[in-house]
Amino acid sequence: MLRELNYKDLENGSLDGTYLLIDVRSPGEFASETIPGAINIPIFTDEERAIIGTTYVQESMDEAKQLGVEAISRRLPDIFKQVNELDKEYKNLVFFCARGGFRSRSLVVLFKSLGINAIRLEGGYKGYRGYVNASLPKIVEEVQFKVLYGNTGCGKTEVLMELKKQGYDILDLEGCANHRGSLLGGVGLGTPHTQKMFESLVYHSLKNRKSNVVFTEGESKRIGRVAMPEYLFHAVKSGENIEIKCEIDLRIENILKDYINDTDYEILHALSFLKKHIGEKNFEEYSELIKKHDYIPVVKDLMIKYYDPKYEFKNREYIGSFENRDAKTTAKEIINFTFVE
Questions:
Q1: Tell me: the pLDDT tens digits for 168-190?
Q2: CB 41 within 8 A of CB 79
Q3: Contact at 8 Å (CB) between 32 and 194?
């Protein structure tokens, strides 16, 4: 008999023992967005999936199924080898595809018949997304955000990571977006996350919190290619604000550490979008300096002329202000201020 459960049951501990989520969608689907923690064992390649989909629309369902069976049969020995090894490590293997249909069903039926404890996730990835969409706003309502603000390069992210290391709950919005928020924020980070993946990572971060006090960074509503849902943006904006200050020389060091790592092409490409703000002359000067690997005057000039005026928070009320010279020390000071004083 086909065994299945929905994501709510999974989160509520319906399974006895360890489990692993296995995404059987194509590599492209998995790379775009998945359930955090899942691994990818694709039934079809991206090309096969496109061909089968086109055949379904232009030819017939039977013809598409025939192509699907042929594709699966070529890959089945390797799939079985992977699944058989995972079955030795996990008590339950939970398979999902886009909607809990043909791809996951076919594998679960097969592996159950071979004695593997395979389970199908009801509704697939779409069902999971529906659960996150319904649950995340309720979770956000329970959270009391402590929000770090400060100019670019003052080390807010490092302080946030130190708070996490010291056992306190954080929401790393930039990490969830895989983008630092500014126009240059994607430099060195690779492909930014999609909106769905961002929301999933936010959900799991807040779902796994130990308390209702959560530290985060102040961000614009849009972070790279994603946007905070209105309820999340409002909750962060309504949180208690903590100011992080830092001398400009140390800010420059932080920027160089975060952005400069064989990333000249990315920096120049991003700066090209700033021409209307910094002017053609400045852009040309910055470009020449970057090509010579002379980054400090570029960073300092951008901070003074562009970033600081854009991101200053003169009218914001803070419950505390901290000079950040060392992230670990600053994190301890914030913890003492928040939970002791």
A1: 999 999 999 987 766 665 555 56
A2: yes
A3: yes
**What confidence category does residue 196 fall into, taking pLDDT thresholds of 50, 70 and 90?**
very high
The encoded tokens of residue 275 equal 């021409």
Q: Please classify residue 62 by burial: count the beta carbons closer than 10 Å to its beta carbon, then call 0-12 exposed, 13-18 middle and 19+ buried.
A: exposed
Distance of CA 125 to the CA centre of its chain: 16
Instruction: Give the span between the Cα atoms of 177 and 43, in whole angstroms.
Output: 28
Task: Give the C-alpha separation, 191 to 247, whole Å.
Answer: 31
The C-alpha atoms of residue 177 and residue 198 are separated, in whole angstroms, by 5
- What are the CA-CA distances from residue 116 to residues 3, 20, 22, 103 (Å)? 12, 13, 14, 17
Domains annotated for the chain, with CATH where assigned, are 4-131 (3.40.250.10), 143-339 (3.40.50)
- Return the closest-CA partner of residue 65 out of 51, 81, 46, 75: 51
Using the predicted structure, report yes or no on whether residue 270 has a pLDDT greater than 80.
Answer: no
E strand spans, the chain: 4-5, 19-23, 39-40, 92-96, 118-121, 144-149, 170-171, 213-217, 222-223, 226-227, 240-245, 320-323
CA nearest neighbour of 15 among 93, 77, 129, 74: 93
Structure tokens at 284: 């040309």
Q: Report how far residue 59's alpha carbon sits from residue 72's, in angstroms, rounded to the nearest whole number.
A: 20
Q: Is 233:216 a contact under the CB 8 Å cutoff?
A: no
- Report the catalytic residues: 97
**pTM, full prediction:** 0.88
Phi and psi angles of residue 145, each rounded to the nearest 5 degrees, phi first: -85, 135
Kindly state the average pLDDT of the residues 103-109.
89
User: Which of these ranges, 92-101, 167-176, 293-302, has the smallest mean pLDDT?
Assistant: 293-302
Strands 226-227 and 222-223: antiparallel
pLDDT digits (tens, 9 = 90+) for 6-19: 999 999 888 888 99
- CA atoms of 47 and 28, how far apart (whole Å): 10
Q: Are 297 and 252 in contact (CB under 8 A)?
A: no
Distance CA(250)–CA(258), nearest Å, equals 12
